[in-house]
Each structure stands twice: as C-alpha cells, then as structure tokens.
C-alpha cells in the first residue's frame, strides 16, 4: 500500500511525526478488509492493538511516497501478530511488530475458526 | 482555556497546522461540559459543526501557550452559534464563528428548553 | 482526488472528525503540486490558509471513499481563493472556500507572474 | 502530567485511537522542558524516537482525564531511554519504553555532558 506524506503528517522537526507511522500501518491493515469490500469489524467488535514494538530507522518527509508492507507472523486463539515495514523506494524507514486482539465492549473475544480463516486469507 | 502547542500540533512549515486551531476550539467547547462534570452528549446525540468561518490572523508555534475564548452569539430552536478567539498573550491569532446542531443518527434534533437553558448557563 | 476514511479520521461520534475535512482539502491542494513533481513551497515560503468558510452538509464514516474537488475561484496580487467540495459518490458532504497566501518567515509575499501562471496551470 | 481526552483523540471504536497514547507521552516529555522555560531542541537538533515498545492494557474514552508519568531508565553517550505509564485514576492503561536520540539534519549527535546533566535534572 502506497501512502503520500502530507503537511498533516509532519511536525516542526520537518519530518513525519513519529506516531503517524502507526497510522500508516493501521491504514494498511484496514485496507486489506476494504479491498475485500469488508469492514475490520466483527459483529460490533473492533480489532485493538494490545502490544507493539517499533524501530524508527530513518525519516519520511513532506511529499514522500512510502510503501507499507504487512505480514501475519502469528495466529493464536484470541490474537494475531503482524509485522509491518515502511519503505521509501528501497530504503527501510520503519518496522513494527503488532499484536492485535478482537475486543467487544472491553472484552477480548476468541477468534472463531471462520475469522481465523478469513484473516489467513486476507493477510497472506 | 489554556492550550500548549506540542509537536503533534505543528507541521513542516514550523507552525501549527491550520486545521488544528479547530481542534483547539472543540476542546474549549467540550471543556465547558467537562467542568460541569457532564459530557457534550444528549441521550446519545452529539453536537455537530454545521457551518464555520475562520480567520487565520497569525501563527502559533511549538511551545507556545495559547488561550481559547468562547462566546454564545446566537441560539435558535435547533442550533446555536459560538464565536471563538485564540490568543497568544494579547495577540489575536485566530477567530472563528461556528454553527452547531445536535445530531442523533444523522437527524438534527430540536434543542429542548432544558438543553437551551443548560447551554445558556454553560456558555455565559 | 479519492481519499479513504480510516480509523484515525473518525471520532467517538462514529463519523469523520470535523477538522479532518480540512486535512482532506489540504491533501488535494498539495497533490496538484506533487503530480507535477513539485512541492507547494516557493523558495522556502509555504502557502498558508488566511480565511476559510465551510459547510458541513453530511458526514463520512469509517471505510467510506470520498472525492475532493478543487477549483480556483480568484487570483490576486498576493493571494488566491480555492473552492473545494467533498463527495461520497454523488452526495455532497462538505464544501469550503479557502483564501491562501504565500508566507515566508511570517511575511506575506507577492505572487510573481511566474507563480500566478504556475497556479493557473496547476489548478485549472 | 494530566491530559483530558477530547473528540479528536478518539476514533469510531469509541475509545482513544492507539497512536494517540504516543502523542500523550510526547506531550509529557516536551512539558518537562517547557516547565523549565526551555524547548526540547538543542542548537537546531531535535530529540527523535529511535525505538519504542508499548503495552496497551486498557482504553481511555472521551472525557477521561489521564495521567502520564515519565522516568529515565537509561542514559548512554548518544541516547537515553524513558519509561512512560498512563493511568486513569489508579488504573494503568498504557506503558511504553522509548529510546530517544538527538538528531541534527539526519545525523545522531553525541549528548554532551551538559545535555546529560540537563536531562538528568529534568527527568528525575
């Protein structure tokens, strides 16, 4: 998924504000669903980030076009783990491992077999 | 209401990103309710901006503390109008007239007498 | 210009946060420059919004794809005016008239003939 | 540092958008400098997040007041590590370990003894 860096994404340091790389990854995750004409919402339950680790390797700046890649790296009964990388051309700018759970009204829900199949098909 | 300008509020131009002055005004509107230990939500209906005009007079920058003022300038059956100004010390940076309506599930709701009294007391 | 609505664009009211329509318009303005392989920056001077009026007619929600249109409606010695509309399919959600100036270090700069020609060619 | 959750901080899931907890932590870091009447900028160099790990334990929602705590956990020649926690009353919502470096024009700079002393005094 390609993303353009606009003014709103940058800060007074002249580069993309650090938290906005997380937004870019979230867009890539959502886009997988949208491209299947689905929403990433299951019976009113939303996918929620539970843990995340991030490496900020280099910086994108205003006007850059970056590419976000997404891989499923783990799938458990009630959670799954993604690995995102953000590139500008061939240069790696950012990488992140993200653990997601499905939450309904504050409660973690089991991923049914159906959902797991769906995620597998969506993310591979 | 005093608001500090953080990195997230600025852009690569080195100043506060224009749309963020609207956020500052919205915080001031919400804060009136919070300070009464209320939410700006009426039976599930949210206040929604219907019209707005804005003058961007000068710019706030990273680290500035600005002050947002709010006045009620009009109240009708189903809408009310606010006038916000944002100052840095004595210098006017921004002003805006905002027309708000109460919307429930996409439908504009009449402001009951109770709500009107409430708004009057909150905003004066 | 087509824009997808992601989680980051929405708020707890379930719809796009009002100030984010301004971001969408700014993306469309910047994109005109990017598509010419230019930045909307002239010798270190940035285009800055001076005045704006907005009509919020209907709401976009998570997952929607909206389209932003841009027209030049006025061009003066040191400013120009744009008219943006945001549609979801054929439905008008938002319109805005925006007056922009070119600012260098806090000072408004005259738009040279070259810049005016450029803007004319970019925006028509 | 106390932070109020406004509409802009939430998303259509009804809770604070995950990346915004990072903004809250950044505000707390910047505020240490502001309260000393300083900017977190050293001769044009900005502090930049290099690595981060985050636990999202529970969610803040519109109207909540949260508190961000900050501790220095490590200091090296050219980097330092902070540990942030975000609480709503006594409930831990979020924790994060953040590695920061001082960057000037894309290059990591050594933290001088002066800066180290300053950081030590600021953050303890």
Number of strands of chain A: 7
Q: What is the radius of gyration of chain A computed over CA atoms, rounded to a whole number of angstroms?
A: 15 Å
Return the CATH architecture of chain A: Roll
Q: Please provide the ordered H/E string of secondary-structure elements of chain A.
A: EHEEEEEEH
Number of discrete domains of chain A: 1
**Helix and strand composition category of chain A:** alpha+beta
Question: Which CATH class of chain A is shown?
Answer: Alpha Beta
What is the CATH third-level topology name of chain A?
Answer: Thiol Ester Dehydrase, Chain A
CATH H-level name of chain A... which superfamily?
Hotdog Thioesterase
The average pLDDT value of chain A, as a whole number, equals 93
**Biggest β-sheet of chain A: count, sense, barrel?**
7 strands, antiparallel
Percent range of helical residues of chain A: 10-25%
Largest interface summary: A-D, 20 and 20 residues
What gap, in angstroms, lies between the N and C termini of chain A? 14 Å
Seen as an oligomer or otherwise, the chain set is homotetramer
Please describe what this structure looks like:
The structure is a homotetramer of 124-residue chains. The first copy, chain A, is an alpha+beta fold and 124 residues long. In chain A, strand 5 and strand 6 (91-104) form a beta hairpin. In chain A, strands 1, 2, 3, 4, 5, 6 and 7 form a seven-stranded antiparallel β-sheet that branches. Chain A is elongated and about 45 Å long. The first copy, chain A, has one domain: Roll (Thiol Ester Dehydrase, Chain A), CATH 3.10.129.10. Chain A is built from two helices and seven strands, in the order βαββββββα. Helix content of chain A is 22%, strand content 44%. Chains in contact: A-B, A-C, A-D, B-C, B-D, C-D. Chains B and C meet through helix 1 and strand 3 of B and helix 1 and strand 3 of C. Strand 3 (45-56) of chain A pairs antiparallel with strand 3 of chain D, so a sheet runs across the interface.
């Amino acid at each position: 998924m390609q993303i353009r860096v606009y003014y709103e994404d940058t800060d007074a340091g002249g580069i993309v504000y650090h938290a906005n790389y997380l937004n870019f990854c979230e867009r890539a995750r959502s886009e997988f669903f949208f491209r299947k004409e689905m929403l990433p919402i299951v019976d009113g339950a939303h996918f929620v980030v539970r843990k995340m680790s991030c490496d900020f390797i280099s910086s994108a700046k205003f006007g850059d076009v970056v590419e976000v890649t997404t891989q499923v790296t783990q799938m458990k009964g009630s959670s799954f783990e993604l690995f995102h990388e953000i590139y500008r051309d061939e240069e790696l700018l950012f990488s992140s491992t993200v653990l997601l759970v499905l939450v309904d009204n504050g409660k973690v829900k089991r991923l049914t077999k159906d959902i797991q199949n769906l995620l597998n098909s969506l993310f591979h």
